[in-house]
Amino acid sequence: MERFYNAPDTVVDEILNAVATTAPLRIAEPESGLRILIRRDWDKQNQGQRQVAVLSGGGAGHEPAHAGYIGAGMLTGAISGSLFASPSVEAVLAAIREVCGEAGCLLVVKNYTGDRLNFGLAAERARGEGLKVAMVIVADDVALPDSPQPRGIAGTVLVHKLTGYLAEQETPLEKIQQRAEAFCRRMGSLGMALRPAAQPGQPTAERSPELGLGIHNESGTREVAPQDADAAMQLVLEPLRDALADRHLDAPWIAVLNNLGSCSTQEMGVLAASLLRQLGIEQVTHLIGPAPLMTSLDMHGFSVTLLSSDDDIVTALDAPTSAPGWPGLRPANRPDTFSADTHQDHEALADDAPQDDTNVRTLERVIDTLRQAREALDELDARSGDGDAGASMQSGAEAIAKALAAKRLNTAALPQLFTGIGQLLSRDMGGSSGVLLSILFTAAGASLDQRGELNAALAEGVERMQAYGGARPGDRTMLDALIPAVDALKRGETLAQAAQAARDGAQATATLTRANAGRSAYVPESALKGVVDPGAEAVARVFEALAKSG
Predict the structure, then answer these.
(1) How many Cβ atoms from other residues are within 10 Å of residue 200's Cβ?
(2) Can you list the pairs that 81-84 forms with residues at least 24 positions away whose Cβ atoms lie under 8 Å?
(3) Beta-strand (E) ranges in 177-294?
(4) Contact 400, 363 (CB under 8 A)
């Protein structure tokens, strides 16, 4: 099982029934074989006398389109076909009959042959019955610039919003149609995907990343090989802006960033930042998304729609709607900034701080040790955690190295030295290890300042680590090496003996197959057997470096 589907031929009906169960909608009886959803509050003899009904639809697989856009201020109803297949003429005609009152009905249709033909024939038959029906065809895709029939893709959702707003204002049918057609001429869309969609019950096709592919999984206009999100966004924006420039359209833009199905929230956030950066924040009045507006099943890609903006368009797109799928219109502004207050009540870092050559050399030996240990620690952590223990330790070491080089650490006075190291680690090391080590050095520095006894100060720092971190000896953490070493120093033993105690403690963690703290607590016991805890290993190596210095 690769995807959460049941039988492939039940996917569409299950989706639509879930939508109808959780939204104020009416759904065509299953026995009819028609997939139609209509606003529960819509009455063609009531609202339909004053307001134009707006219908849209097409193949399924584009959720939340089109059922997610049903609601006051957007669609009156939606007609769905099978996956990537247009609904039948009978389904469209039945929907028109259900919603069309004296004010008429507007059909918003994506520019695909099946949709044009089926919706068009349904409109003709409805007119033959005396119903007032008009149709708007959306053709926003710029992937095929020479095509006489560009496809309708994500920009269709904007037309849903505009026409739904105008209908709420009781605008006549002919006027809504004219406004919608003019609106369509002001926008363009283009998509890119790293991987195509997979139909339920079918494997994903093996295709290279493509630019300009359709929402029905059609191949793109050309293969591409973007190296990062910025390159991908550039590949989309350049031809999109060129196509709009050919129509004499320019900024300010309303930009739409559409998730084609399976891009993560984080990917879409990065793409949104790239979109705004490349367009220029001053050129974008509003952003819609990033959000799934017009998807293509699980296609791993995105599309961008640019709409040349004016005040009337902003008003229409910003108007309230009860449609659950509409993500809203958000103003795009350069972020306000503020200066974060990072001052310390007792600042231990200062320019031209007093220096002690012996302590400087000792710190440099420790820093070099952690630099050399990075790969080994990362490898240990990859087997018992998230693989970044060495990188974290090195980042802390580099922060200390930078402060040493700038002579901002007072190496001549241990209380100020420990406190300064604590401040550096809390700011620059990150992760739980950085915070815990910062607690150790900060507490030890305070104890040294008050009592002046190094070994007792280290022991107090370890106690504070345990109090805040919650770990104990035997929990498979750095404490398993740190506590034996500090205990040895408290007994008056040498640094060499303390280093041996740390090494013995670190080696003992390889026999501990149950971790009660840290990321190892979430790793199966079998994965921990024979693996030294990376934090304990780092502590052992630091004490060994200190012993050599001593």
Answers:
(1) 18
(2) 81/35, 81/57, 81/114, 82/12, 83/11, 83/12, 83/59, 83/199, 83/200, 83/297, 84/59, 84/60, 84/199, 84/216, 84/217
(3) 187-195, 210-211, 222-223, 253-259, 284-291
(4) yes
Q: Which amino acid is at 504?
A: D
300 is an active site residue: no
Residue 163: CA atoms inside 13 Å, Cβ hemisphere, count? 37
Place of tokens 């003019």: 182
Q: How far apart are CA 164 and CA 161, in angstroms?
A: 5
Residue 462 host element (H or E) = helix 454-469
DSSP character for 75?
B
Task: Please tell me the pTM assigned to this model.
Answer: 0.76
Question: Residues 480, 536: contact at Cβ < 8 Å?
Answer: yes
Residue 80 pairs with which residues in a beta bridge? Answer: 58
Taking CA atoms, 266 is separated from 259, 263, 304, 386, in Å, by: 12, 8, 17, 19
187, 59, 54, 178: which is closest to 112 by C-alpha?
Answer: 59
Task: Give the tens place of pLDDT for each residue, 490-537.
Answer: 999 999 999 999 999 999 998 886 656 555 554 555 556 788 999 999
- The string of DSSP letters for 2-64 reads -SS-S-GGGHHHHHHHHHHHTTTEEE--GGGT--EEEETT--TTTHHHHS-EEEEEEEESSTT
Edge-to-edge order in the sheet of strand 133-138: 25-27, 36-39, 77-83, 53-60, 105-110, 133-138
Helices (H) and strands (E) in the chain, counts: 18, 13
Bridge-based pairing of strands 25-27 and 53-60 is unpaired
Domains observed in the chain: 8-195+209-331 (3.40.50.10440), 357-549 (1.25.40.340)
DSSP designation for 294:
S
Calculate the alpha carbon distances from 538 to 299, 301, 336, 454, 480 in Å: 44, 42, 41, 21, 11
One-letter amino acid of 469: G
Could you report the per-residue pLDDT of 334-371, keeping only the tens digit for each?
999 999 887 765 567 888 899 999 999 999 999 999 99
Q: Indicate which residue of 62, 66, 160, 216 is catalytic.
A: 216
Token representation of residue 366: 């420790």
Q: Could you tell me which of 36, 306, 37 has the C-alpha nearest to residue 154?
A: 306
Q: How far apart are CA 478 and CA 490, in angstroms?
A: 18
Structure tokens at 4: 């959460």
- Which contacts (CB < 8 Å, 24+ apart) does range 354-362 have? 354/410, 354/411, 354/412, 354/413, 355/407, 355/410, 355/411, 355/412, 356/411, 356/412, 359/411, 359/412, 359/417, 360/404, 360/411, 361/549, 362/546, 362/549
| Distances in whole angstroms, Cα of residue 115 to Cα of each of 14, 80, 176, 358 | 23, 11, 20, 81
Residue 293 contacts by C-beta under 8 Å, 6 or more apart in sequence?
A: 64, 65, 154, 157, 256, 258, 259, 325, 327
pLDDT digits (tens, 9 = 90+) for 257-284: 999 999 999 999 999 999 999 999 999 9
Comparing CA positions, the residue from 282, 37, 382, 319 lying closest to residue 169 is 319
